[in-house]
Design goal:
This protein has 9 helices and 10 strands. By secondary structure, it is α+β, with helices and mostly antiparallel strands. Strand 7 and strand 8 form a beta hairpin.
Amino acid sequence: MKIRGNFLLIILSFSIISYCLIGAPSVYSQEVRDVNPPLLLDINNDTFDLGDTIFISGTARDYDSSSDTMSADITIRVMDSKNNIAGVAQITPKANGDYNHTFVAGGQMSKAGEYTVTAFWNSNVVTATFELTGITGSSVSTPTPPAPPPPVQPSMDEEPMMDEEPSMADASSQPACGQGTVLKNGVCVVEEKKSGGGCLIATAAFGSEMAPQVQFLREIRDNTVLQTESGVSFMTGFNQFYYSFSPAIADYERENPVFKELVKLTITPLLTSLTILNYVDIDTEEEMLGYGIGVILLNIGMYFIAPAAILFKIKNRK
């Protein structure tokens, strides 16, 4: 009995020693990974006013432009305190993995409160927050005074100076507005930007934001859909849905060429149906609703009803 107890004690001792020897490197590697994360994100300040420039920067440590999987773009998403998307950007890092982007506080990013900035790169996600005061910053509220005119030396031979035109005097008295602001009725106000975020899935499928298909989608959005109130309302709701999953799909497209070609083949009928909007005049809310609903129904027919009908006929032939 005593021999059996000593044997069990020896086995227990070896188990504890083995756990310590094997487990120690794992804990150490986890600590190193926490100290050196693969994706970094930084914001130039914790608090911003309207009109301020928000500078976002960071580093993708393992970025490699020669690799298909490690050369993915970085997606930046800004969400307000109610989880509404306030801004989206897609950035190609530099050769050393550094990246940066600027937003101007205004437009969709004008409500006071806490904003969350999230960076996506491959399977890595990192977040940071900042506060927006909702008041106009000093660069907007304090216009630069015009410089005084140089003194004129009197001369007996020179002709008397003519008075300047009133329009020139009025122009010199206009305030100088800061970056991200425009002059309206003699007051500097935050510039409203109607353009939305990037077409992440299409950009990853066709390889560049300058691809004709991506530019076509951007022109349809900015020049047609966003020109009406109903279009703006539709894009606001659509963006909440689209940007909830598009960064992950875009990353997987870059990692898997077969999936990329499948996505490209899938969205081609959608691009074809949207060309209808280039051949019609949309000047009223009713026309926007009519053509918009028509295009949506057309895509439902192409992507769901037609395949279901084909499968049903094939099944009946058997």
